[in-house]
């Protein structure tokens, strides 16, 4: 089977969750014998491919062009939407009014992809239902969750502690791009009030916001961590906190849980579908919720969540589910959509 992954051109230079999902899925599919090629070219010649897999409907313009090109060449199209309606985030007090206007202006493009592709691969049943609530009909869905690298659980805290010996033994980690949606500013305020060191790791998407977060004296920024040192950071952290405005469910929360950290997660989006009652949840817009959540997470036993995540969400398993979806699509075994308004 030959599959073409199509994703925004800056997916490596500007990494986000869609980057991790595409790269990790592609690597594990190759291990299963699938011929996977990645291309950001909206005019790619698709003759040699059995299937086109498009990632990310949030940043829709590139994905829409990929979709139109695949339709013109009569190819089967699978889409990982990585979608959650962001209206509550875009309507917050400090948001720019034009951001919501731009989102709504682009919804018809998202609708056409959602309705016109052959198979949607949402990361949760909750994401599937969010798509149904946002659009008046959609293509058939097969839920394929996100995952964590199979190698991460074997990596302990020692490499991280050797590299960063000045950090306190107990700290709160947030591994995510630095942006208002991830809510590191609220997290920094809560950690300061509790006398805890907050360690940030991830690319800076918003420099002004980053400077606000860094103005708190107890915040330590380590840049972007990857691979073994990132896994070791998760293993060293007492808590991994991701109090975002929404997540589907937050790749770093999955990774941190697999490495043994207690997880504090937003209650917005699909985290509960993954983490059940085994994580601590907070409301991102409420400061006191964050304070209570961090205190609770400090006393939270991480092992039940670690066991649950390791059993259900390694990327090797996710790749097998993805391949099954591909085979069913190409074999005509996908039932028609039933989720419409």
TrEMBL record:
Instruction: Tell me where in this chain the Glycosyl transferase family domain is found.
Output: 169-300
- Which terms under GO biological process does the entry name? lipopolysaccharide biosynthetic process
Which CDD domains would you find in this protein's record? GT4_PimA-like
- Which InterPro entries does the record match to this protein? Glyco_trans_1
Xref: Pfam families = Glycos_transf_1 (PF00534)
Renumbered to this chain, the signal peptide range is: none
Cite the SUPFAM superfamilies for this sequence: UDP-Glycosyltransferase/glycogen phosphorylase (SSF53756)
Superkingdom assignment? Bacteria
- Gene Ontology molecular function, alphabetical: glycosyltransferase activity
Q: Which UniProt keywords apply?
A: Transferase
Q: What is this protein called?
A: Glycosyl transferase, family 1
Q: Please report the organism this UniProt entry assigns to the protein.
A: Acididesulfobacillus acetoxydans
């Amino acid at each position: 089977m030959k599959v073409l992954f199509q994703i925004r051109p800056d997916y490596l230079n500007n990494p986000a969750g869609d980057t991790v999902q595409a790269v990790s899925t592609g690597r594990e599919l190759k291990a299963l014998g699938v011929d996977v090629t990645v291309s950001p070219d909206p005019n790619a010649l698709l003759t040699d491919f059995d299937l086109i897999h498009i990632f990310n409907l949030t940043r829709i313009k590139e994905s829409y062009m990929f979709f139109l090109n695949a339709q013109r060449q009569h190819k089967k199209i699978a889409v990982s939407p990585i979608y959650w309606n962001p209206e509550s985030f875009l309507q917050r007090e400090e948001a720019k009014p034009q951001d919501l206007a731009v989102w709504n202006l682009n919804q018809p493009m998202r609708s056409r992809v959602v309705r016109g592709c052959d198979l949607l691969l949402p990361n949760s049943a909750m994401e599937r239902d969010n798509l149904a609530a946002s659009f008046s009909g959609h293509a058939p869905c097969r839920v394929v969750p996100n995952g964590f690298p199979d190698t991460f659980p074997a990596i302990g805290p020692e490499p991280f502690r050797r590299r960063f010996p000045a950090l306190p033994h107990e700290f709160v980690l947030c591994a995510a791009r630095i942006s208002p949606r991830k809510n590191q500013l609220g997290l920094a305020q809560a950690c300061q009030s509790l006398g805890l060191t907050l360690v940030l790791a991830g690319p800076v998407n918003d420099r002004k916001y980053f400077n606000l977060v860094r103005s708190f004296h107890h915040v330590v920024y380590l840049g972007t961590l990857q691979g073994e040192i990132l896994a070791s950071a998760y293993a060293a952290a007492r808590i991994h906190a991701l109090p975002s405005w929404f997540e589907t469910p937050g790749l770093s929360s999955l990774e941190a849980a697999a490495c043994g950290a207690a997880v504090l997660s937003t209650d917005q989006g699909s985290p509960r579908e993954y983490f059940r009652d085994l994580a601590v949840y907070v409301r991102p817009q409420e400061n006191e919720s964050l304070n209570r959540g961090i205190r609770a997470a400090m006393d939270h036993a991480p092992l039940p969540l670690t066991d649950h995540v390791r059993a259900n969400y390694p990327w090797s398993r996710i790749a097998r589910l993805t391949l099954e979806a591909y085979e069913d699509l190409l074999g005509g075994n996908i039932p028609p959509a039933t989720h419409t308004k």
